[in-house]
Every structure is written in structure tokens, then in C-alpha cells.
Amino acid sequence: MTDDRSAAADDSEVRIGPDGSEGSTDEMERLLAEFDALAETVDSPDERERVRSARRAAVAAANETAVFGRIIHGYDRGDLAEAFLGSVLFGVPMFVEGGTNEVGHFLAAHPVSLVGTVIAAIGLVVGILYVADIQDVRVHEPLFGVLPRRLVGVLGVAFLTAAVVMTAWGRVDWATPVLAFADVVVAFVPMSVGGALGDILPGS
């Protein structure tokens, strides 16, 4: 049973074809099924282990192709770290650029634009993760049965990073919370994009 579970885990990251089709996945599944059938026909433990080693090597070879095309599912601390790094890379220019505060002042005075900017940022992240087909991102165990963990993670990391860094660097003053929130939102927009790209481009 342990070997079966490890074999199943080995093919959890089988890639799809570079053109976005499922063909390569189907071929790999057929190959893995043949390996499993072969393992059942051999009697020697050594021969059975050789078959399993060949099976693992086939999966490893499939997963070592291009970054693009992997089926992405699950969400863990590694994904959060990738989203954080992507957010910081896109956020540093926003932290030091005075235009961030200028746009923030405008948004603070125009609530409709402020709300629209937040919605647009969320829409961009949804588009990158689930619509643009950059990677085949699967929703895994959504929060409350509705909210994708990856979406919440990317947005949450980007916003919290923007708020913490801009506060620490004196770019916002929470004595005026609406203005401070607006300033953070301006930085949050590109940071959320960076977080989404940083999360999925490694293909993890």
C-alpha cells in the first residue's frame, strides 16, 4: 500500500502539453497504467522495484519539461512565499514613487474610483490565475466551499505586504485611514499582479 500511495503521489504533477492540450497528460496516464500493470505481472521483488523506479523516472522526466503547462493544484507555504516575492518585486517601485500618493489622494476623494480600483485588481488576479491559461490552475479545497485558496492567498499577501511596508517606510499615515487605505490600494494593484505571476510561473 505504501508503494501504491507513493506511486500515485509521483504522478500528481504530470504536465499537460505545451500547447495547453490534455494530450500529453492522457499519454502519460496510459504509460503509468502500463507500468502498474507490468508491476503486477512480475514476481521478483527486485524486478518489481525496477519497474517502479522506471515509473518514477518517467514522471520525473515529464515534470522537467518547460515551466509552462503544469497542472497546478493545492496551496501551501511555498506558494505564499512565491506570491510574497512577486509582490515585493512589483511593489518596491510603488513604495518609493511619489506618484503613488498622488493617485491615492485622488482615489480617497473619489470613493467610486477607489472601489473600482479594488475590483479591477481582483479581476486582474482572477484573469491571470484562472482565465488567461498561463497555467492550468485547479481550485483545491476552496475556503467556505467558494473562495479559492490561491486567490485569497495572492490578494491577501499583496495587500498585507503593501500595508506593512508602506507603513514602516512612512508612506502612509493611518491617522487619515481613508487616505492611507487609498494609498495602499494604489500599490496593491501592481503587487497583486506580481504576486499572481510569482505564484504560478514557477509552476508549483
TrEMBL record:
Which ranges are annotated Basic and acidic residues under compositional bias? 1-16
Q: Which UniProt keywords apply?
A: Membrane, Transmembrane, Transmembrane helix
Chain segments annotated as transmembrane:
80-96, 108-131, 151-172, 178-201
Which range is the signal sequence, renumbered to this chain?
A: none
The protein in question is named Putative integral membrane protein
Q: Which organism is it from?
A: Halobellus clavatus
In terms of InterPro entries, this protein maps to:
DUF2391
What are the start and end residues of every segment in region (Disordered)? 1-27
* Pfam families per the UniProt record, alphabetical: DUF2391 (PF09622)
- The superkingdom of the source organism is Archaea
Q: Does the keyword Membrane apply?
A: yes
